[in-house]
């Protein structure tokens, strides 16, 4: 069912991982999806797999529509130009998925804060939290022109349990709090703002670390409880299609819980249980 027909969406950080999975599912539901990132065809950042052009090709192969736009969301000028383009082409923005994230440039381990490199701040806050704040700053005025919009912050959340790494925990909770603050400020505009958490995703980098791929992951015992990146995509699509989504505004959501609520499955037919951390 094309539940998002006529909607315009922007998914940042859509070269790979959660961003790609969400972009594919929003397009499958009928939305026109702008996919952004720094990795483009012929110029992939850090030689990582995937780029925004490949994401768009996959969207179109599945019958969806969209546009790939190179954008560094840490730069206000890049982001402002992107939003101006969306405004001129559509005059509206219904769905914003804030997924830009640069926090995994260094290994994320569980050493004490004072033994961790300070560069974690630059990667997680400048390239993650700040990038999402900038995108909100330029996108919200356009979104306010049409009631009933949705902003999603992809983050990681498990009932406010400590996530093990000081910088990672601080950054992910900052995204949750940003969503809550915006939910209060945008309540009168009818725009829902929701922090959305996946479980353990089989991203391209996770699969590579286990020396496997999406076609063979079931052969790796350690990956038995993982979910595809389309799972969080289906969660995002379900939220965007819910006419009563304002009831959830400001409240952290988990992909596994939303699967139970809305009745969707992962691409292999499973309802993957919510990922819970050990206390």
TrEMBL record:
Annotated signal sequence is none
InterPro entries, per database record: NAD(P)-bd_dom_sf, SDR_fam
Gene3D superfamilies, from UniProt? NAD(P)-binding Rossmann-like Domain
Matching PANTHER family? DEHYDROGENASE/REDUCTASE SDR FAMILY MEMBER 1 (PTHR44147), DEHYDROGENASE_REDUCTASE SDR FAMILY MEMBER 1 (PTHR44147:SF2)
Please give the name of this protein. Answer: Dehydrogenase
Species of origin reads: Paenibacillus sabinae T27
């Amino acid at each position: 069912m094309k539940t998002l027909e006529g909607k315009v969406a922007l998914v940042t950080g859509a070269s790979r991982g959660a961003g790609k999975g969400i972009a594919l599912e929003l397009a499958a539901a009928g939305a026109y999806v702008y996919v952004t990132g720094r990795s483009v065809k012929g110029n992939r950042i850090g030689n990582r797999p995937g780029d925004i052009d490949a994401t768009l090709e996959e969207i179109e192969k599945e019958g969806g529509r969209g546009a790939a736009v190179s954008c560094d969301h840490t730069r206000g000028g890049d982001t402002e130009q992107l939003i101006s383009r969306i405004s001129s082409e559509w005059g509206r923005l219904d769905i914003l998925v804030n997924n830009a994230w640069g926090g995994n440039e260094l290994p994320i381990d569980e050493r004490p804060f004072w033994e961790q490199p300070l560069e974690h701040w630059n990667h997680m806050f400048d390239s993650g939290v700040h990038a999402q704040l900038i995108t909100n700053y330029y996108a919200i005025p356009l979104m306010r022109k049409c009631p009933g919009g949705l902003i999603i912050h992809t983050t990681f959340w498990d009932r406010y349990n400590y996530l093990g790494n000081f910088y990672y925990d601080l950054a992910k909770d900052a995204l949750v709090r940003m969503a809550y603050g915006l939910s209060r400020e945008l309540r009168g505009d009818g725009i829902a703002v929701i922090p959305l958490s996946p479980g353990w995703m089989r991203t391209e980098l996770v699969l590579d670390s286990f020396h496997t791929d999406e076609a063979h992951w079931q052969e790796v015992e350690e990956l038995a409880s993982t979910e595809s990146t389309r799972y969080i995509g289906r969660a995002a699509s379900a939220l965007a299609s819910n006419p009563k989504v304002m009831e959830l505004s400001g409240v952290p959501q988990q992909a596994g819980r939303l699967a139970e609520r809305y009745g969707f499955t992962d691409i292999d037919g499973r309802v993957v249980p919510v990922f819970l951390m050990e206390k």
